[in-house]
Amino acid sequence: MGLFSKKKRNIRRTREDYIFDTLNTIFMILLCVVMLYPFLNTLAISLNDASDSIRGGIYLWPREFSFKSYEHVFGQTAIYQATLISVLRTVVGTLLSLLFTAMVAYAISRKEFVFRRSFTIIFVLTMYFNGGLIPTFLLMRDLHLIGSFWVYILPGLISAFNLIVMRSFIDGLPESLFESARIDGGGDFTIFFRIVLPLSLPVLATVALFVAVFQWNQWFDVFLYNSSIQSLSTLQYELMKILQTSSMSMGGGSAASGFADSQSGQSERVTPTSIRATMTIVASVPIIMVYPFLQKYFVKGLTLGGVKE
Q1: Rounded to an integer, what distance in angstroms lies between the CA atom of residue 194 and that of residue 212?
Q2: How far is 156 from 169, CA to CA, in rounded Å?
Q3: Do the beta carbons of residue 304 and residue 203 sit within 8 Å?
Q4: Is 19 exposed, middle or buried (0-12, 13-18, 19+ CB in 10 A)?
Q5: Which end of the chain is more exposed for a tag (fewer CB within 10 A), N or C?
C-alpha cells in the first residue's frame, strides 16, 4: 500500500511538472517575442527598400530587400574616422574609469579612513545636483579640455553611482583577507591590486558595461566641445548629422534625399525612417557582441546587496 501511494505521488508530481514546464515555456517564448520584436522590426526596416517602407506593414521580415540605407550610411567617408574615435574613447574611458573608480571605492570602504562617511555624502550629492550646462562648459574651457580628446574621458572619469556599487561590493569582502595581507607586510596598493581587483570581477564587469555603453552612445559632448573638429568626431555624432541631413532634405522636398543606383541608374530614396533604423542597428551591434562575454558577471553584479548573510 505504501509503495502504491508513493508511486501515485510521483505520477501526480510529474504531471504537475509537465504542466508547469509547458506553461513556463509558452510564457518565456512570448516574453522573448515581446522583447526581441522592436529590434527585429528595426532590422527589417533597415534592410527594406526605403520607399517601400513608407507604406508600413513591415514587421519581422523585409518586404523588399535593399542595402541602400547601409550603403548611404557607410558611404560617408567621415564615419570611419569617427568609428575609430568612438572605439578609442570607449576603451580608454572604460579602463580608466574602472581603475580610478575602484581605487576611490576601496579608499572610502576602509573603516580606518576617518572621512569615509563625509566623502560618501559628497559623492552622493553629485547625483542630485550639478553646476549646469554653461558653468560646465566654462569649466572645460578653463581646464583647456575643449578641442582635445580628453574632454570625452576626464569629466566622467568617476561616476557616483558606479562608485557606490563598487564600494558596496568591496565592503562585502572578508575583512580577514585584508588583515592577513597586512600581517604579511602588504600595503594598500598591494592589497588593492592583488586582492581587491581579482575578487571584484563581477562588479568590475557590471560597471564596465555601464561605462562602455555610456561612452559608446555619447554624442552631445562632441556637439558641445568638438563639433568644429572633424578629426575628433564620434560615430554617434556622425550618425546624428546623417539623420539630420536626411530629415532636412525630406522636409525641403529636395532630390538630395535620394541617390542614384550605379547599376540601374534609378534614384532610390533614403528616408529618415530607414536611416534611423540603420543607425540603430549600426550603433547597437558592438554592444550586443560584447554583452554575452560579460553576462555571467553582469547578472551577478546586479544582485549586489540583494542577499545579506
Answers
A1: 24
A2: 21
A3: yes
A4: exposed
A5: C
Cα 94 from Cα 97, distance rounded (Å): 5
User: What would the grid cell of residue 280 be?
Assistant: 540603430
Mark 146-166 as b/e (b = at least 16 C-beta within 10 Å): eebbebbbeeeebbbebbbbb
Helix axes 235-251, 272-302, angle to 10 degrees: 150
CA-CA-CA-CA torsion sign (119, 120, 122, 127): positive
Tell me how far apart the alpha carbons of residues 163 and 181 are, in angstroms, rounded to a whole number.
Answer: 24
Q: What domains appear along the chain, each with residue ranges and CATH number? A: 2-74+234-302 (no CATH), 78-231 (1.10.3720.10)
Please provide the DSSP assignment of 214-260 as one string.
HHHH--HHHHHHSTT-GGG--HHHHHHHHHHHHHHHHHTT-GGGEEE
The cell for 38 is: 522592436
Indicate yes or no: pTM above 0.70: yes
CA–CA separation, 194 and 207 (whole Å): 19
Residue 132's Cβ-count burial label (10 Å; 0-12, 13-18, 19+) is: exposed
pLDDT tens readout for residues 95-120: 999 999 999 999 999 888 888 889 98
216 versus 297: the higher-pLDDT residue is 216
Quickly count helices (H) and strands (E) in the chain. Answer: 14, 2
Q: Which of 9-18, 58-67, 119-128 has the lowest mean pLDDT?
A: 9-18
